[in-house]
């Protein structure tokens, strides 16, 4: 069939765009295109597209791809961490810090050591003569200068803080390789109830994936350490029966934070059951005090009051004041010691369970809830400044109306006995705050003021 005939019967009539008789070659190409009617072109386009989709699907779901992706991720992670861990000098620091000075002293890995509770627990362990190694990723959830200041304090007392993430299995293995830990005090977590709506992934990363990673490292260790870790009063969620006791239901969390802490308790059960890890969960009730967390109400209320800015006081349905069982840090440290000292060893070795191991959960609260308006009144008294109160309805952001701990179990089994009331505890906090930030209207997140170093 001559090209002109093909052109006549099936090629679109756009004569200005196709020059048929330019040369033999072009003529052949053109005639081949002409043999493809519009229907065929659409068919082949769709077929090619389908092929592409199938190829992409197989590529994305192939295990090899994930492995190499994960490998490159861990390589990147390892690369980042190589700067701060590994090598003979690093190992020397680690060994020195982990050396227990008292006879039969514990050798404890404290995760989240540059955090609020982590700093206090690490300092107290060191003071008692136990060996301590800190681990912290120094993330910027809140003022990293405050975390660095805590690190300065720890290093002054001989506690070395390794910079790294609990998700980094290579780093954890290295630590367990260099040191035989008797205990792990696991305090690294994504804290905060309301922030979970802004950044849910960070809760999964730290409180679930990170916890599992840490338990994997503990399970592989020989001998396995006993683990004490921070759960939360928030696991009681929307319960209305007070005071909260360990046997109460914990299946109605009000926030993703609470849900990840509850998940942690279930994960602990699994690792105890399969691998013989000795695990104790501590449900902390709104811990406060010097060197505290700037994301917590008592801390940022203090800042706002000193700056003459209003504080938002949340109120529950029917104008009911919210209340918390605020617990002073020194009482919490004593509770952590009680848990560490009564923990029996894990029973597994080399990843295998050799017998049943301890699995415990305790409330660590103060047992006397205080309303948020009363908290503000106490701060006003200690700061000698009147607060600008702005009473607003409690937003739907994961908060619960009240918390109240029953600590009978911890009293009996850990010798826990909270002794600091909110008046006394906040007085100590305010004293620290004013020394650290210089009082007045200084910002709790300003780097210059945060560089001050003080005793806790
Ligand atoms: O006990 C716990 O398990 C939890 O305690 C605190 O969470 P929360 O009790 O909510 O402590 P804050 O964020 O300091 O809030 C204290 C009270 O102040 C109220 N609040 C908070 C912020 C605000 O602007 N206004 C206000 O009235 C809250 O509703 C709450 O009743 C910690 O932030 C959590 O990490 C911890 O796990």
From TrEMBL:
Lineage summary: Eukaryota, Viridiplantae, Streptophyta, Embryophyta, Tracheophyta
Organism: Selaginella moellendorffii
Molecular-function GO terms, alphabetical: racemase and epimerase activity; UDP-glucuronate 4-epimerase activity
Segments traversing the membrane: 41-60, 105-125
EC code(s) of this entry: 5.1.3.6
InterPro entries xrefs: Epimerase_deHydtase, NAD(P)-bd_dom_sf
Listed name of the protein: UDP-glucuronate 4-epimerase
PANTHER family: EPIMERASE-RELATED
Subcellular location: Golgi apparatus, Golgi stack membrane
């Amino acid at each position: 069939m001559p090209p002109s005939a093909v052109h006549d019967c099936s090629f679109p009539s756009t004569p200005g765009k196709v020059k048929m008789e330019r040369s033999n070659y072009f003529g052949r190409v053109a005639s081949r295109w002409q043999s493809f009617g519009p229907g065929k072109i659409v068919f082949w386009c769709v077929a090619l597209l389908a092929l592409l989709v199938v190829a992409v699907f197989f590529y994305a779901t192939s295990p090899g791809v994930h492995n190499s992706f994960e490998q490159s991720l861990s390589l990147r992670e390892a690369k980042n961490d190589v700067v701060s861990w590994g090598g003979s000098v690093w190992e020397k620091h680690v060994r020195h810090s982990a050396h227990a000075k008292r006879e039969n002293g514990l050798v404890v890995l404290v995760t989240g050591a540059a955090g609020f509770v982590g700093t206090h627990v690490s300092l107290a362990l060191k003071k008692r003569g136990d060996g301590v190694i800190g681990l912290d990723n120094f993330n910027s959830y809140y003022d990293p200068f405050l975390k660095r200041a805590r690190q300065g304090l720890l290093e002054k007392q001989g506690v070395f803080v390794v910079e790294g993430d609990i998700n980094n299995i290579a780093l954890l293995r290295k630590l367990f390789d260099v040191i035989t830990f008797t205990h792990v005090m696991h305090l690294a977590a994504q804290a905060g109830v309301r922030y979970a709506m802004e950044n849910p992934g960070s809760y999964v990363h730290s409180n679930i994936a990170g916890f599992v990673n840490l338990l994997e490292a503990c399970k592989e260790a020989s001998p396995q350490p006993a683990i004490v870790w921070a759960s939360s009063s928030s696991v009681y969620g929307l319960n209305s029966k007070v005071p909260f006791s360990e046997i109460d239901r914990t299946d109605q969390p009000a926030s993703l934070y609470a849900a990840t802490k509850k998940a942690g308790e279930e994960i602990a059960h699994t690792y105890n059951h399969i691998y013989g890890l000795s695990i104790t969960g501590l449900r902390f009730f709104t811990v406060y005090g010097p060197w505290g967390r700037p994301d917590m109400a008592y801390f940022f209320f203090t800042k706002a009051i000193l700056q003459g800015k209003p504080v938002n006081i949340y109120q529950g349905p029917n104008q009911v004041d919210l209340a918390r069982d605020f617990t002073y840090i020194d009482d919490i440290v004593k509770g952590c010691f009680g848990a560490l000292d009564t923990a029996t060893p894990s029973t597994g070795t080399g990843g295998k369970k050799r017998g049943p191991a301890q699995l415990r959960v305790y409330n660590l609260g103060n047992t006397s809830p205080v309303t948020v308006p009363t908290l503000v009144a106490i701060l006003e008294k200690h700061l000698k400044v009147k607060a600008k109160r702005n009473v607003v309805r409690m937003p739907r952001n994961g908060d619960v109306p009240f918390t109240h701990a029953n600590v009978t179990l911890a009293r009996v089994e850990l010798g826990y006995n909270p002794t600091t009331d909110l008046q006394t505890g906040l007085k100590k906090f305010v004293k620290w705050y004013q020394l650290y930030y210089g009082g007045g209207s200084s910002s709790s997140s300003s780097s210059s003021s945060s560089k001050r170093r003080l005793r806790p």
